[in-house]
Task: structure prediction
Amino acid sequence: MDHFLYRDGILHAEDVPLPEIVAAAGTPVYVYSTATLTRHYRLFEEALSPLPHLVCYAMKANSNLAVVRTLGRLGAGVDVVSVGEYLKAKAAGIPGERIVFSGVGKTRDEMRVALDGGIRQFNVESEPELRALSQVAHAMGRTAPVAVRVNPDVDAGTHEKIATGRKEDKFGIPIARARAVYAEAARLPGIEVVGIDVHIGSQLTRLEPFEAAYRKVAELTRVLRADGHDIRRLDLGGGLGIPYARSNEAPPLPTDYGAMVKRTVGDLGCEIEIEPGRLIVGNAGVLVARVIYVKEGEDRDFLILDAAMNDLVRPAMYGAHHDIVPLVEPPPGAEHHAYDVVGPVCESGDTFAKGRPLPRLGEGDLVAFRSAGAYGAVMASEYNSRPLVPEVLVDGHHFAVIRARPSFDELINRDTIPEWL
Ligand code: LLP
Result:
């Protein structure tokens, strides 16, 4: 459920008509709903209760400071994958003890910044990383709390590019090697083992792969405890999918997920951490765009929008589906027409949808891409020298621009012409 609904025939974000935001911020523009963010965070909170737990929002899905602060105020921790995200989390007010640092390629500099600023846990993904962290922490006279990310060799059954838990994927340490790695971790100076981490992929639409992975983690917990390690936290990653095509998709709900977590690892007495990104912010955002032209092709009509693949890359990159709806509600029974929905960027890949049935639209009409709050703005670029798409946050009757569209001067002045030219 989200808070983008038609009221009096106009699509609203909570209590704000979207055309009002367009009048203030232009198009294309991302718009997020505070009520939806809050609702989704609370769903996870409730689903995991009464287990001791921390929901660590995966900032990679949407790292706008206002979004992160909204979740932080509700008590969320965050999962970061770069020093940039770490510093943004701090700037948004997330205390170090609620920040988990994931990722296969943390540099020594990144480790130093996190150790200095405070960190809940490093999710370590390889032996070389473990040794580097030990050296850095030891040299600083610090102790780094560590969970080792294990690769359980489970197929998440999701898109090839976002499956992370199979042995051919670059992530984690093969679960069969875990005992040896934990033994080394226990010997290394500057390292304190606190738990186990696993994350098998994103946009999972079934619980079975999670369940298979978590059962392996439960078994490993028992083995490692018998080896003498104090396994007190389990980080179960993110990955729960959302319905992108609302008419025919119904992925499991956080409550189902929570019940499965309790069933698989609930009796171990561990504190549970989860790292949801998409499920918290995905359906809390839309991308609003304007129709520039309707072009009649040889055998199809093209709806040419002012949003493009640089603003929302998911369709071009993963063949992803996003529902597209007009801002003015079509009358019941309105005739639909099949459009190829495209952007102005100079490649054919800049196509959002092919043969998409939509009510008849014309120049100047406004449309919204639904489910665009996750991996939308964060993956945007300035390809074709199109200024980075702005973002707006709505809360009830209020809205604010939370990242402004850069001016053309800013865009031009970002480059430097060397003196010899
Ligand atoms: N934790 C780790 C270690 C991750 O790698 C990810 C996502 C998450 C948590 C959050 O997963 P979520 O709950 O959002 O599924 N750009 C792609 C998605 C990439 C996901 C990468 N890792 C897309 O647009 O579909």
Remarks:
- The domain at 103-274 is CATH 3.20.20.10 (TIM Barrel).
- The two ends are 56 Å apart (CA to CA).
- The chain has a mean pLDDT of 97.
